[in-house]
Write a structure and sequence with these properties.
The chain has about 300 residues and is α/β, with parallel strands linked by helices. About 45% of the residues lie in helices and about 15% in strands. It is built from 15 helices and 12 strands. A 4-stranded parallel β-sheet has the order 2-1-3-4, with helices on both faces. A 4-stranded parallel β-sheet has the order 6-5-7-8, sandwiched between helices. A 4-stranded parallel β-sheet has the order 10-9-11-12. α3 runs parallel beside α4. The longest helix is centred in the last third of the chain and has 18 residues. The radius of gyration is 19 Å and the shape is globular. The structure holds 1,3-dihydroxyacetonephosphate (13P) and iron/sulfur cluster (SF4). The site of 1,3-dihydroxyacetonephosphate (13P) has 11 residues, from loops.
Length: about 300
Amino acid sequence: MNSEAMKSRIEELKREKNAIILAHNYQLAEIYDVADFVGDSFELAMQAKKTTAEIIVFCGVHFMAESAKILNPEKKVLIPDASAGCFLADMISVESLRERKKEFPEAAVVAYVNSSAEVKAESDVCCTSANAVEICRKISEQQIIFVPDKNLGEWVGENLPKKKIIPWEGNCYVHAKILEQNLKTARELYPTAIILAHPECEKIIRDAADEVLGTGGMLRFAKNSDAKEFLIATESGMLEKLNRETEEKKFWSLGGECLNMKKITLPKVLSSLENDEFEVEVVKEVAEGARRSLERMVDLSS
Ligand code: 13P
Ligand code: SF4
């Protein structure tokens, strides 16, 4: 079956099964073509929470599909490739978090959504790149164990100097590979371009950027800016979103590909819809704890 035939069959199956496709901004162009909504982690969680569809096919990495299931336990949530994990989310275990909590009993735990359901359940509140500063500002605790992304945690600390952030030693390999030298070279080539960096980038990149933003924030900034050229320091799939949703603007990516994000392909989405694969399940007690942290994030973000 060619890709056009696959896309038509996917549309048919969505109607027949009352399914929607939610996709992260880093997905392949072919996934954008069949998605009902493409967005950042927070926007996707909100879409999952409000949908009336019976089935959610989640095109992204596992923690995102898991969050959709936790926020919407009555729905069937499918991920087209069950092995699409997140290396950052794997950098913390619930046991190691419990140990850290014993060291800082007064501290609140804020978990970036790029974490397992078990870690979310062990935390006080979740956040995404879009609301990390806001959430940490709004909670009353002055000490915060921020997991698992060190760079995002540090960036929160830089924005909230009165709070003591205790960052976890995790990072995202895609963002860690964006080096100062890449930025220097790109700047020489495009001296007037605005630099937008994801907060998962290293400090040296964040400091050199004009704006530090999550992927949803990058799109909003680019749309509203008078600037015409942008250097984008995040996963390269973001360019698809920026190019599709802006006019007469030029974007260059400083980042490479997230291998797990790119595991989701059109044939796998078709197979997912045809065979209800692969269903995301979360143990009830863990889901309840993780839902509390995710719901608190939603409440604090409004
Ligand atoms: P956003 O929430 O900014 O889309 O980021 C998700 C992510 O995985 C970044 O690597
Ligand atoms: Fe995880 Fe990094 Fe991929 Fe985002 S880009 S899903 S943080 S590995």
